[in-house]
Amino acid sequence: MLLISASLARQIVSVSSPKPSGRASPHFIVVAPQASRYVCAVHLARLRLRDFRNYAKLDVDFTPGFHVLLGDNAQGKTNILESIYLLATLRSFRGVGGAQMIRHGQKGYFVGARAVSETEHTIRMFWSSAERQLTLDDQPVRRLTDYLGVLRTVVFCSEDLQLIKGTGRIRRRFMDLLLSQTHGAYLPLLQRYARALRSRNALLKQRAPDEQALDSFSQELARLGGGVLKLRHELVPRLSPLTRLAYRRISNDAEELRLEYAPSVQGDLAVELAKSRARERLFRSTLVGPHRDDLKLLLNDKSASQFGSEGQKRSIALALKMAQAEYLTGLAGAPPILLIDDVMGELDAKRRGGLLPLLERSHQARGQVFMTCTEETWPAELGRDLHRWTVQSGALRSGS
Fold this sequence. Notes:
With 400 residues, this protein is α+β, with helices and mostly antiparallel strands. The chain has two domains: 2-152 and 336-398, Rossmann fold; 169-307, RecF/RecN/SMC, N-terminal domain (Glutathione S-transferase Yfyf (Class Pi), Chain A, domain 2). Helix content is 38%, strand content 22%. The protein is built from twelve helices and 16 strands. Strands 1, 2, 3, 5, 6, 7 and 8 form a seven-stranded antiparallel β-sheet that branches. The protein has a six-stranded mixed β-sheet with strand order 9-13-14-4-15-16, with helices on both faces. Helix 6 (211-250) crosses helix 10 (310-332). The longest helix has 40 residues, at 211-250. The protein is globular.
């Protein structure tokens, strides 16, 4: 199996990726490749866990369709979803590092899976503070692009509210992950930008930076940043109508939801970098560029974060994730695996019903949906097609 070093992990961290919490070393960070390779739904046929969260050992088979994980809080429902998301993206949607996913008292965790589409793939990964191992079909993953897209997922969870309430970093990450899933050149471009940014910031932190070296990195930053800006500018007008339609489906409000890309520079990035040089010396950091951009969420042209009600913010968060799933489905020709983490109980009947078209399309394409609930709060229309599972103290038992 391939040992993925911390240095390689750092190389593949996006400029807007979250920092792992705690003392964990950099975790796996990958995203899916160009979606045109996939023409039918991929489903998780088998999941294996060892010392992952509160699961000492789990071996379970899943069919395509709707899977509902029922149980009280803190029994391990979300941990199942987290492990599936980890298989797809090699990161946790909870924003934690690998150390937090190891079962208490153990040194590492193992997550394995069998993914089925036109072909069948076997995934095995092991994580500890000392090493990381990843294989695909019993072969070491030597290039992460060879692994990307084996599973594609979209997660719906309470943390999604941070897309509206949180900082621009969270919304940049949302754009970056979606672009990386759908545009093969984006992630390498973003990685090169991040490396140039780190080098330029290191120079700015020096008491007397080398002006020639600073100019060189400024030129590199402007060139790479221009590519990032271009692709983000192209994404948002395509995503905005999908988000607006999703918001109409789930909200009783008459307000129009609109997404607007808000770059930190309006003109030429090279010119803006030169203009900000004096301020940058003061702050010892690069003050303009794609790493300072944002995605505006507007209700009737007003900031949703500032003027939206709590219910409107929940609807917008749900609409963004629905749009993400629709966007990926349109490009791939098949739906991603949907992971819905205990959000049904937080939504009224209209918002829950608004998810039905997305869930029905997944069903028609023999896709897969995993939902966690503490009680039966899913749309009644799905009742006939559900696979029920009971989760209790790190154990999973089929209910139907």
